[in-house]
Structure formats: structure tokens, C-alpha cells
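# nightly structure sweep
# worker-07 picked up a monomer target from the shared queue
# config: single-sequence mode, recycle default, output format = C-alpha cells
# input follows
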Amino acid sequence: MDNSTSGNNRGIYIVILAVIIVVAVAFAYVRNKGGDSQAVKPPPPAARPPAAKPPPPAAVNPNAVKVIRYTSAGFSPQRVVVKAGQAVRFVNDTSQSMQVASDDHPTHTIFPDINMPRTVGKGGSYELLVLRKGSWGYHNHIRPQHTGILVIE
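# output follows
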């Protein structure tokens, strides 16, 4: 066999090998894109525990609103204890925007019940009725170094 025939066969083998690699890569891409491969999909978000049932009306004073002030130094008081079914009001005493959000920053998924849908400026407030018992960290989404803890008993 002469060298030109051997060189032609080698070229054909390289082309066949390249076609096989391209087909295998395309097959793997299409299979993973349309299949249920867990390696491709992001993990599902943490399951949110069911909301607690509110306590009987006699157990909570509806007029007892716990006020948490947001100052240039952060939230005051920084740790607040309330009863399930009690209202909590965040008041912005700064000239900066405030947006209360659950820890962890920036996903806000640990206690999403507390997440403010929008920011409020100076003198603005945000009030919510807390129902789910636990100890929950929160922060100002605009200034995440300003943190607080809300304990619901």
C-alpha cells in the first residue's frame, strides 16, 4: 500500500470520528434539555412551612401594635418579642429608603411573610400581622448590614 492511500484512509477515519463526536454531543444536549435530568435543573426552593392558624380573638389584644423604628444606626429595638396574631409596625425614621426583608440576603426566603413589597421613605411605615411562631432574622434590603430579630411566641 502506498503512502497516499494510507493518508486518505486516515483522513476518512478522522472525519468519521468527528461526525460521531458531533452526533453524540447533539444527542446529549437534546436529551438533557428536554428530559428530567436533575444535574441540569436547579434545586427546588425550600418548602415553605404552612402558615400558623391565628390564635383565638381573646388571646391577642388587637390594639397592641409593636413598633420597630428604623434609624440611621439600624432597627430599634434590634430584637423584638411578640405574640402570634400581634401586629408589628416598622417605621422609617431616616431620610433613606427602607425595605424590610427576611434573611438570607438577597433571596429573602427564610421568613417571606415579613418581606415588604416596596420601599418606604422617611416617615413611611409597614405593618403586618405575624402568625408563624419562631425566631426570624430580617434586614433592610437597601442596607443589609442593618439587621434585626423578630421572635414570635
